[in-house]
Design brief:
Distance between the termini: 32 Å
Oligomer: single chain
Shape: globular
Order of helices and strands: HHHHHHHHHHHHHH
Number of helices: 14
Strand content: under 5%
Radius of gyration: 22 Å
Helix content: over 70%
Largest sheet: none
């Protein structure tokens, strides 16, 4: 009698390296991180009553949160193998599953991001708001179905500070979750670090701040957030150093995994393109800009965004390549 035994070692998608995540996952992690950063930055400025000094942040930036989050979820949906069963994520909650946590966090963050947008919609997008009002007055029978919009608008404006207070912890949860999703994946040593969550959170806030510099035309606002971004980049570099030293002082498998960026196949991508062009160069340009050199802030902001998405691509790919088993 012939007995056939199937194990993961016979699955070419799992062994010796993972081949299950393509471009969709790092794009989702990047957009989720930017969304988290936007929620945190906008809410903080609203609570500090900085609307007059930071027009883009306090009145307009929040609109990007639901838009970017939608694009990120779309990328994640494209990655799903069985798309028709996506609803099953919400039929249960598994306390020990980061994907279960992520599904429910996304479900909660969505309405929060919409409400945060509505808190300053009339002020930040006055033309669009007036256009909606004019449409309702001209065709009240058709637009009367949007009566909930006015109720939500009034509710959001009235409870602006409360919404901002709720958005900050959920923004932090979303930002950290994008890193924890990988770090709890114990089968891959490159991801198996508690520093992964904080790295993704700080990187997400930094990319959100870069968005402000990219869209703002106010000199004071750009200068303030340029200073903030330099500190965020410094924090991100510190966390990356902790991540690398932690891996170097761990098990043999962690030591081999970190070699992927310390002389291995991803060294150039990590140190030249991400660390050099995506972190150090924008920090240097921002520093020189604050010193009075005429350097367009959009250059440094674009490089920060480039570094943010490249970081996710490198970490996702390095994790899939790394393994506990030596071959």
């Amino acid at each position: 009698m012939e007995v056939e035994i199937t194990t993961n070692k016979m699955n070419y998608l799992v062994d010796p390296n993972l081949h299950i995540w393509g471009w969709e996952v790092p794009v989702y992690l990047f957009l989720g991180g930017v969304t988290a950063g936007i929620l945190i930055v906008v809410s903080f400025m609203l609570l500090k009553d900085k609307g007059e000094k930071s027009h883009v942040v306090a009145n307009r930036l929040a609109l990007l949160a639901p838009v970017l989050l939608s694009l990120g979820i779309l990328a994640l949906f494209v990655d799903l193998e069985h798309k028709l069963y996506v609803w099953r994520f919400y039929t249960t909650f598994r306390f020990t599953s980061p994907m279960s946590w992520g599904s429910w966090i996304l479900l909660i963050v969505y309405p929060i991001s919409f409400l945060l947008t509505l808190t300053t919609f009339r002020k930040g997008f006055s033309k669009a708001s007036l256009w909606i009002d004019a449409c309702i007055q001209s065709k009240p029978r058709i637009w009367r179905y949007l009566s909930a919009y006015f109720w939500l608008l009034g509710f959001s404006e009235k409870h602006r500070r409360l919404i901002a207070k709720i958005a900050i912890p959920f923004g932090i949860l979303l930002g950290i979750y994008t890193g924890i999703l990988l770090s709890t994946f114990g089968a891959r040593p490159f991801w198996n670090s508690p520093i992964m969550g904080p790295i993704f959170l700080v990187s997400g806030v930094s990319t959100a701040v870069a968005m402000v510099v990219l869209f703002s035309k106010d000199h004071e606002e750009i200068e303030f957030f340029t200073r903030v971004d330099i500190w965020l980049i410094a924090g991100e570099i510190s966390l990356l150093i902790l991540f690398i030293t932690g891996m170097l002082s761990s098990s043999e498998q962690h030591l081999k995994a970190i070699q992927l960026i310390l002389g291995g196949e991803m060294t150039t991508y990590f140190w030249v393109f991400f660390f050099g062009i995506g972190l150090l160069l924008p920090a240097f340009l921002e520093f020189m800009e604050l010193k009075g050199r005429k350097i367009p802030g959009t250059i440094a902001a674009s490089l920060v965004l480039f570094g943010g998405i490249l970081l996710r691509f490198i970490i996702v790919e390095a994790g899939q390549v790394s393994t506990w088993i030596g071959y």
